[in-house]
Amino acid sequence: MRMMVRLLIVGMIWFWGGLLAAAPASAGEYVGSKSCSACHEEEYATFMKYSKKAHSWDKVEKMLPKLEPEEQQSCFGCHTTGYKKGGFVSYDKTPQFADVGCETCHGPGKEHVAGDGDPELITRTPTITTCSHCHNAQRVKDFNYKPLLHSGAH
Q1: 80 with 53: CB under 8 angstroms?
Q2: So which domain of life are we looking at (predicted)?
Q3: If you ran DSSP here, which 8-state letter would residue 51 be given?
């Protein structure tokens, strides 16, 4: 009997620990790309000037009137920063996250900024796995674009 209780407790700890570890970033962990510009001025300027990602909301905004609310929300995951992870909520509430920003590829920046730019507190070099949520075979086929790992222009 004791063994079953122990197994149950260990199982519950494993289950809940796994859920908590997989939980999305909480509200407030995202700081917005302008926060990055204070230390990464040149990268930010280049990104804003040359990257299509930095202006992704323009395309979403044009499509919104043609889409149902569920369809609109399916766009937000790839065309905004931190949607359903503590970042973008709506253009009215969180306009600073209404484009694909630095934190989409490099992760939430709150700890990095608070830690005086400690490079260990941010994803310095994104991998193809980071990009594959949006840049995958189905979307390449549907939208006829090529996934570019280093398309951030910085």
Answers
A1: no
A2: Bacteria
A3: -
